[in-house]
Design a protein that fits this description.
alpha+beta; Gyrase A, domain 2; four-stranded antiparallel β-sheet
């Protein structure tokens, strides 16, 4: 898994403090940044978090580039709807040899790993064969319709992989760029850093959290799973390791 912060709102913590200042004081927009030193910015952010007034932090956004993850992960990721996503398309990109993610529980078992890799190789074989069958079918059709060879070839290849991709598994590696504002990120961390989150998206969430903590330490000081600053929100389904979880994320 590779996680890279591609872009983020500059001077984000100061921007949030300025927006918050406008909410709680009679100043105009030309004066909201006046007198905002580092100490006051930190105080404004702490007050916002303590009050639960999170709307001002929506002014700051982060864009991540991620690769080496599975479609299982991205199917979960896009459920976080207040975000923007751009994912590598299997409809337009032909995969001559697709990469795949092996879950740790399978990788550590010799027989399970052998069967898993065999299934991946078989999927690639069937994808190639189906693509070829459909390509020939569409190419012949377009030539008979009077289409030029180059155009017929391009159109046939696109349509052949469009349907052949259905044989690919959830393990298929993918690449994605996405943008979230800081409020969405806090919610994402609360849910996906939890021990009960699926292992791969939890790994992604933790890597993202490490990055944004370095970028804006005050804003994300208390970020992490929901049990960091209160009781476990999972109730009877708790992992029962709240002490270990708090120690881990407080030292992240």
């Amino acid at each position: 898994m590779k996680v890279k912060l591609l872009s983020y709102t500059p001077n984000g913590e100061r921007l949030i403090a300025s927006a918050a200042k406008l909410c709680y004081s009679p100043v105009g927009v030309s004066q909201i940044e006046k007198g905002l030193d580092d100490e006051k910015v930190e105080r404004f952010l702490k007050t916002l978090m303590d009050l639960g007034h999170e709307s001002p932090i929506e002014h700051v956004s982060f864009t991540f580039g991620v690769e080496g993850v599975s479609r299982t992960l991205t199917h979960q990721l896009v459920r976080h709807r207040i975000a923007s996503y751009s994912q590598q398309s299997q409809r337009y990109v032909k995969l001559d040899q697709f990469e795949y993610i092996i879950p740790p529980s399978i990788a550590e078992d010799e027989k399970a790993k052998e069967l898993f890799i065999e299934a991946m190789e078989r999927d690639q074989k069937y994808y190639d064969e189906i693509s070829d069958i459909l390509f020939n079918k569409y190419f012949d059709k377009y030539i008979k319709e009077g289409m030029k060879e180059k155009e017929a070839r391009l159109k046939a290849e696109k349509e052949s992989i469009e349907d052949a991709r259905y044989v690919f598994p959830n393990a298929c590696e993918t690449k994605i760029v996405f943008t979230m504002n800081a409020r969405t990120l806090l919610n994402f961390f609360r849910l996906r850093c939890c021990n009960r989150a699926q292992w791969e998206i939890r790994q992604l969430a933790i890597e993202m959290l490490k990055i944004v903590k370095k970028t804006y330490p005050t804003l994300f000081k208390n970020a992490g799973p929901g049990c960091l600053r209160g009781p476990c929100p999972e109730g009877a389904m708790t992992c029962g390791k709240i002490k270990e979880v708090r120690e881990k994320f407080n030292n992240l």
